[in-house]
Amino acid sequence: MEKEKKRVALLSVFAAIFLTGFKLVVGIVTGSLGILSEALHSALDMVAAVITYFSVRISDKPADKEHNYGHGKIENFSALVETILLVITCAWIIYEAVHRLTTGKTEIEVSVWSYVVVISSIVIDITRSRALSKVAKKYNSQALEADALHFSTDIWSSTVVLLGLIFAQFGIYMADSVAALMVAMIVLFVSYRLGKKAIDVLLDKAPLETISEVKRILKTFPEVKEFHNLKVRTAGADTFIKFNIHVEPDATLLDVHELCDRIEKELQNQIPRSEVYIHAEPQEANHIKTETRDSFDI
């Protein structure tokens, strides 16, 4: 698992290095703000890819005395850093595009290399985005998911730049700056999605879909008379689940232990890389049964 995650993250780094250099050279030669903005975007992609590579190396380390819940949150921190880098990208692109539009300095030189670099970028980004997304889903890695989402937006932004070049070919040079502004809007939208998800995990926001799945599974066990105090948190690819269950008061310790093992196994089958903590209590004889008694209104 760790080798596959490292390999796809490292390939992403190499792809970002190639695209950054290629776009920078062509952008300087042609004077295209759209391509230069893409070069800066790719440069930050490269930094983000490097961060992702090191985060996936660290995140799979087992828990130790200082990190009892493992190192998974380094992936979420990595995703947050990527968000900050994306916002920085947007600030520069928007400033330069507005400056060119207001001063009228929008003329650029469109050459065959302008099209080569943009089309090459689209092809490479499609390939690496799919590879990252596949591995991210396979191993529930938010760092790789952030990288995949990051690079999938490059496809759309490069397409916008390509349209700007086509318009510039016909003398409509301001289209290049407008294209750059559209790139910035796309990047800002992605930044919001990435940042919100990363912050939610770092602040231990309850994952509602996982909570619903845990409730559904618990209701399939007739021996569980009631459950409450359900708490779920995530850290990178790991999910930590904790709850109380009520069982028949005359159930033997062996029976309760066997029930908890079955519940834990079923949850781990349905929720990959989950750790389950179960506290069993006897059901009171005069207790009025409710479906759940959650401590929080989730």
Question: Can you summarize this structure?
Answer:
With 298 residues, this protein is an alpha/beta fold. The protein is built from 8 helices and 4 strands, in the order αααααααββαββ. The longest helix is centred in the first third of the chain and has 31 residues, at 73-103.
Please tell me about this protein's structure.
It contains eight helices and four strands. The protein is α/β, with parallel strands linked by helices. It has two domains: 201 residues, Alpha-lytic protease prodomain-like (Up-down Bundle); 86 residues, Alpha-Beta Plaits (2-Layer Sandwich), CATH 3.30.70. A four-stranded mixed β-sheet has the order 3-2-1-4. Helix 2 packs antiparallel against helix 5, helix 4 runs antiparallel to helix 5 and helix 5 packs antiparallel against helix 6.
Overall radius of gyration: 25 Å
Strand order of the largest sheet: 3-2-1-4
Strand content: 5-15%
Look up the CATH topology of the largest domain.
Answer: Alpha-lytic protease prodomain-like
What is the count of helical runs? Answer: 8
What is the structural class?
Answer: alpha/beta
Order of helices and strands: HHHHHHHEEHEE
Alpha carbon gap, first and last residue: 33 Å
CATH top level label of the largest domain: Mainly Alpha
What assembly state would you assign to the polypeptide chains in this entry? single chain
Q: Extract low-pLDDT stretches.
A: 291-298
CATH architecture of the largest domain: Up-down Bundle
The major β-sheet equals: 4 strands, mixed
- What is the helix fraction of residues, given as a range? 55-70%
